[in-house]
Amino acid sequence: MHFAYPPRKSSNPPPYLRAAKLPGLRRSRLKVIAAAGFAFLVLIYLLTRPAGHGHYKSYVPTGNPPVVIVTAFDEMKYDKPYLDMIKDNRIQYAEKHGTGKCADLCLGYKTFFGKVGDYDLKGAPSSWTNVVAVRHALTEFPDCKFIWYLDQHAFIMNPELTIEEHVMKASKLEDLMIKDYPVVPPDSIIKTFSHLKGQDIDFVVTQDKDGMSANSYVIRNGDWARFFLETWFDPLYRSYNFQRAETHALEHIVQWHPTVLARLGLVPQRTLNTYSRGDKGVEYQEGDFTVIFNGCSSTKECDAEAQRYVERWRSEFKST
């Protein structure tokens, strides 16, 4: 029985065998061409898309108005004549710096008055109104340059001084800033940064004998300000039983959040936060920017403190 031999393989394969590889080559070339075309289209898109599209753009306020003075009033606890006297002080100071003396694009100072009871604090102490009033003021004046919070028990005493020049000017801050100093004296291991420059500062605050003071402070408007206020007003801090409520919460976040400490300028108390009595801090002297009626807790007590200064500030305002 004979078996057929299998066909011999030729050493010269027919042309169609070589042609069988061409479709694969075409596919690879097409992939390269397609990838190059896609890359070209992406490049065209990147070059022609609107500026800033797809990127976060920080908010830069126009600076109109330059300063908003914020005060939160407790109308349920203090009498109207006393509070009206405080409001009048703010309004007259703002008028000295342009409010009501120009058209719609006025670059004068503005005032914002918050009220205890206007905001839902979710059971937190009423003093937290101070913080939420500042947040509210930023929504009313989104293009302001600075927010100056000043306690309801205080007068502005020197109308010649301005926030821009006396407090927030970079060169002025260089001279004022207290560096490498405990945030909560005397024992806090967290200290103010020693390397900061005046242009780095977005939050200016003072200390008294009890620690950090929230009676009078200045915030530079911008993205950081909104972050800072949202952090400070966090529901967790409001629900925590801090002895001094929002002031101790402020001390907490300054010590535990380097992002806050890196924008903080600690300045001498006399800069914008002197007291009517010297038992808790620096006592007021002639020419100081402000006076705080520290220690008063009723209309009778606070009005008695205010009467020591009301004629003085009215006289100063009339003479300028």
Report on the structure:
The protein is an alpha/beta fold. Helices cover 38% and strands 13% of the residues. The protein has twelve helices and eight strands. The strands form two sheets. The protein has a six-stranded mixed sheet, with helices on both faces. A two-stranded antiparallel ribbon has the order 4-8. The longest helix is centred in the N-terminal third of the chain and has 27 residues, at 22-48. The chain is elongated, with a radius of gyration of 33 Å. Pfam families: Glyco_transf_34.
Q: Could you tell me the mean pLDDT?
A: 86
Per CATH, which architecture? Answer: Alpha-Beta Complex
Secondary-structure element order, as H and E? HHEHEHEEHHEEHHHHEEHH
Main beta sheet: 6 strands, mixed
Determine Rg (CA atoms, Å).
Answer: 33 Å
CATH topology: Spore Coat Polysaccharide Biosynthesis Protein SpsA, Chain A
* Helix share, percent: 25-40%
Content-based structural category: alpha/beta
Which shape, going by the Cα principal axes?
A: elongated
Number of helices: 12
The end-to-end span amounts to 132 Å
Order of strands across the main sheet? 2-1-3-6-5-7
Low-confidence stretches: 1-11, 16-22, 50-54, 100-105
Task: Tell me the number of strands.
Answer: 8
